[in-house]
Amino acid sequence: MSTKTLRTAGGLSVRYAPRALLSVLGLLLLAVAAAVVLIGSGDFPIAPADVVATLLGHGTPVQEFAVMDLRLPRVLVAVFVGAALGIGGAVFQSVSRNPLGSPDVIGFGQGSTVGALTVMVLFQGGAAAAAGGAVVGGLVTGVVIYLLAWKRGVSGYRLVLIGIGAAAMLTAVINYLITKAQFVDAARATVWMTGSLDGRDWAQFWPLLAVSCVLLPVVLGHGRALRMLEMGDDAAYALGVKVERTRIVLMGSAVLLVAVATAAAGPIVFVSLTAPQLARRLTRSPGPNLAASALMGTALLLLADWAATNAFGERQLPVGVVTGVLGGCYLLWLLVSERKAGRI
């Protein structure tokens, strides 16, 4: 990976990788374009230029109602959910040093689902209470998995194995709760478990924005330490990284981001698994690629939501169905390419 150094007149210097920088800018433009197109899509189509004009305060009353009240909050929820899942996946894949170390593979997504279903099924709670249950379930699962994986430190191999076991047990709990639910609660829980952005409004956006504004800078600020953790604990210690404290801060932030994203839109699968890997292949840069992973997660979720609402005629699909199909195709491609390369 080639790097260049940008020097200012005041003597400051910043090193950057041109390809990684161009990739981040390209993903940012793709996410913005997808958001504008998605806002303009629907039963009352609006041209992209009119969408931009409406966002700047120059639209007609009808356009302002469609954009500002109906479609913009849904798209903003998708933006922050995608970013949270992408950056959460990048953190756990880097901490575990395993591409399968994704929150929806090692149990954190299932923990949030159990928390939400417990509220829905056992206490007949509403949407807000279910969202709170998803956050609590994700955090409790994160603490339990971390404690079980602890043995004079947390190794990535042990974390993934215990996480997969926890995911299996939590999936059994999810199935049990569904069987115990009454018909209406079971139907509501099944829809929520699919993962959807339908009906999301400002009530889901503001908590998501508040948590993201606090935690995303924390994770991005630890990007250099996370890159060193990928080299192993001993190397990180030698380079001055406080390994366990850094790991707890990063894992706690990632668990909370994924839990809040799940609370806002349900368990949307495969985004946290695929976004960091696609970002790494695009930038061809080692390390967690946190900014690129967050933008890749956002772009993937926006494009998947556009496909879910526009590519199947009048039968709109939950976005979780589309991400599941795309994630399955990605896994097949990954297995074939790894086999051709002789690595499996």
UniProtKB/TrEMBL annotation:
Transmembrane spans: 20-40, 75-93, 105-123, 129-149, 156-178, 202-221, 248-270, 290-308, 317-336
InterPro entries on file: ABC_BtuC-like (IPR037294), ABC_transptr_permease_BtuC (IPR000522)
One term of GO molecular function: transmembrane transporter activity
Any Gene Ontology biological process: siderophore-iron import into cell
Pfam families attached to this UniProt entry: FecCD (PF01032)
A GO cellular-component term linked to this record: plasma membrane
Entry membrane topology: Multi-pass membrane protein
UniProt keyword terms in alphabetical order: Cell membrane, Membrane, Transmembrane, Transmembrane helix, Transport
Predominant place of localization: membrane
Localization in the cell: Cell membrane
Family: Belongs to the binding-protein-dependent transport system permease family. FecCD subfamily.
Name of this protein: Membrane protein
Taxonomic classification: Bacteria, Bacillati, Actinomycetota, Actinomycetes, Kitasatosporales
